[in-house]
Amino acid sequence: MIEEKILAHALECAPQESCGFVIKTNFGQRYIPCRNIALDPTEYFEISPDDWIKAHAEGELIALVHSHPDGIPVLSQTDRTMQQRTNLPWWLVCNNKIYKFNNIAPLIGRAFKHGVMDCYTLFRDAYHLAGINLPDFYREDEWWKKEQSLYLDNMEKTQFYRVNDIQPGDIILVCLGSEKANHSAIYCGDQYVLHHCPQRLSKRDVYSGYWLNYTDSIWRHKQWQPYGFTAICNDMAASSNLMY
Fold first, then answer.
1. Among 9, 53, 94, 154, which is disulfide-ready with 73 (CB 3.0 to 4.6 Å)?
2. Any idea which GO molecular function terms this record carries (predicted)?
3. 68 tagged catalytic
């Protein structure tokens, strides 16, 4: 019912961007449509302050909703910047579908904690922004020193397949101080990767030297779309803005 109302509101507002909130009340969740008071509402949205106040007064904010009538189904750089500030999941209407994005940590500048905020978390979160949701799985410390091969055992299970070429968005598996593929990086084009090494902040790096020499394999998701990498780039740009 909520999703039907969200889609109907987006259709009613087109070609302008719709906006609103999903709230939780004592009677369940419901959608509150809001007014887009942006100077150019076909390009971006700005929720009326009165509607913000109304939504807060009527219940707990569960998600912020807006639409991309003629856009792509990923959050823009501005969307990601504002999502960090609102600290809410954002639901996006595009092509008469609703895409739901959690408020993940910025992809660049993350502190490392194995099993919680590590190279797989970065890989999984980046793909979430690209519209592909991957499972989480338990990974004990130094699993690669035991009878485990978590990356290679799970890539095909999660609809990845090996490739011999490389394009932005592909996953590179690297043998980091091990004979097993135990580290992942996202190829960003122009010989750069995005990854998260132990005891370091997540960052972009040049794909050469060690990383190139100790590459195990390159993987591509069956559902990957080119706009997925746009989503990752938008987050990296938003992350850079938040750092200054």
1. 94
2. cysteine-type peptidase activity; metalloexopeptidase activity; zinc ion binding
3. no
